[in-house]
Task: structure prediction
Amino acid sequence: MYEKDGEKYFIVDEHQHFWNARPDNWVEGRENLAKGWIDCFYGYHQLAPPETHWPLEKYQRWTLEDYRHDVFEEGHVDHAVLQSTFLYYWYKEGFNTTKRNQMVAEAFPGKVIVNGRWDPREGAEGLRRFEENHKRDNYKGVKLYTAEWYGNSRGYKVSDPEAYRYLDKTRELGIKNVHLHKGPTIWPLDRDAFDVEDVDKAATDFPELNFIVEHAGVPRIEQFAYIAVQEPNVYAGLSVVIGAHMYARPNTFARFMGELLFWVGEDRIVFGSDYGIWEPKWQVEGFIDWQMPDGEQFSDYPKITTTAKKKIMGLNAAKLYDIEVPPECQISAPGTTADEEKAPGEELFIDAGTAAGAQA
Amino acid sequence: MNGVLRDAVWTALGTVRDPELDEPITELEFVSSCTVSPDGVASVLLRLPTFFCAANFSWLMVADAYDAVSAVPGVARADIELEGHFVAEEINEGVAARSGFAAAFSGEARAELDELRRTFNRKAALAGQDIVARPLVDSGTTPGQLAELRLGQVAPSAELTRMRERRADGGLPRGDDAPLLLHEDGSPVTAEQVPLHLRRARLTRVSIEGNSGTCRDLLAKRYAATS
Result:
């Protein structure tokens, strides 16, 4: 819990990692990819306030004690969701496997949720393995990284028929949350790998599932927001949105938040620190202190309320993951009808006529 | 080094844009060195914000740089090399051999990148509508008037010229009789759609400008020691 100016915030961090990118885990002959990957992450790390930077060695692999300190002791996080990214193509034991994440969950019982993962290219065998793992781990969500390299393939779309078989299974197993993370590659490579059009399709066809799009689609926030306004089961994950911009590019951050509040609305935005890309502490404290700046370029955007911050920092994700929220952290104001409220963008959308009419 | 020719090569590189960020690679500092030998061989080294920048956009920049530099009178040969990138070798060799993207990434790609380029020119053209139309909205032009407005009726500006160029590259109408407001697919915007359309144009601009900022930051961090 984080307390500021007499307000109590329940913090759910919906997007964390616990990876191993040390050289002893690099696949022989693919060291350049393994090194390139973690160096690329380390570049993003530099966009945080300098006093929060880690040495590269810690960044490649840190300890459970570091985790406890950075997340729970200093980071104000009440509940964390760990997401997997396998990357076996260039990390021998995988980058950030469910197995490594389970280690964290066991060390901090009742505070960490580990999500499952699947990859449609693993076919019937993968589907069977996923179901087995679910029986053991009882997943509440899955993380999909569509740019995963698998054999000769450089990625997939979540609207592929094979992916639909896995989404069917996910629904059948009673798993509600699907976290989507786009990366730089896809099949075929001539397509825009960051395109989120496939999410639109899947969200329409699987209304029982919640699709949490990490980075709010950045670098395609323009496409993501336009999809989210039409699909009530699409959520914006703030990983990277806060981490890469709040400190390094405050004006961009304000505009991104203004757009998300307008199109997606405060009920479908969830906080994710992307730890260990960045620590949660400065993100939590900074976001709760943050306000839409004055000035002409922000004049169309609303100011953010304390209620909105409480929802974004924890209450929305607590709902998705059935996490119990202490009464003192719940929204106390009577007559809050947030569930029925629309994001302002939705009104505009309806005014402009049917979806088909308005869509470019 | 041949100074005049080197300047001409640099100017040519200034016409090459990052299709996603809609800015010249020279301004983005993606050109890490540019030299011309006495016998007219232009050697250009390109760098990008991360090791994993998307292969297709990276290809377009290297290929466009190759074409632009090769076309400079007096350049005998253009050597364009991308450094520090996960498919640098495939791109450098493919561009030098003029093999095309699909051949260079045989088995991983199905087509050339014309469609990708067109999509991003259209995004840039949509973002440009926010830049051009916003002052009109601020001065009280109504949605009905905006929907009727033609490019020839808008006061000339650098932003308008730029938007017209993006429309041309994106295969969209850009003449004096073309509407100021156009959907990404080129269809006209009705008066009822104007408020939503303008918000969408702005959203697109916010996205492109935001990405550009982050790419600049990442490049600056990546090459902090050398720049």
Q: What stands out?
A: The first strand of chain A starts at residue 2 and ends at 4. Residues 335-339, 355-360 of chain A have pLDDT under 50 and may be disordered. The longest helix of chain A spans residues 31-45.
